[in-house]
What does this fold into?
Amino acid sequence: MRNQLKHSHASWLSTSCFAAGAAVVCLIVLLRPAESQPQTSSEQLVYDRDAQHLWNRLYEALLIRVGPDGRTYGRDRFEPLLWLGSKHLLEGPSHDRAVKLLNEFREMRGEKLIEDPLKRAVFQRDLWLVFCWLQGDDLDSLL
It folds into this structure.
């Protein structure tokens, strides 16, 4: 009887680990690595095939950074490229763009634009990480 319980528990554990691994692989596929130039192909878009979809534009504004060399950074990360002392999103063009898109999101009731639960969960997580950074919370403690 005890061996049956051990086998049953081990089977459950391995199935759970496999399911968790499959979920991580799905997230990795959704968040592809950065390219040398901004891409608008459907493979680079996270939430919708349309590059101008509000969720894609907000994702770009909040989580993707463009370096002085014109290259994009952040698509290969699970957390936003935000750190203590950074002025990104707090002032200048990145701030203006983020505020404009967040207002558009609020006015258009953007939360209703996508119904896929996985995409909604990833989007909520992305917004939550930016919110925590704005509040001064340590991102590493949330991951």
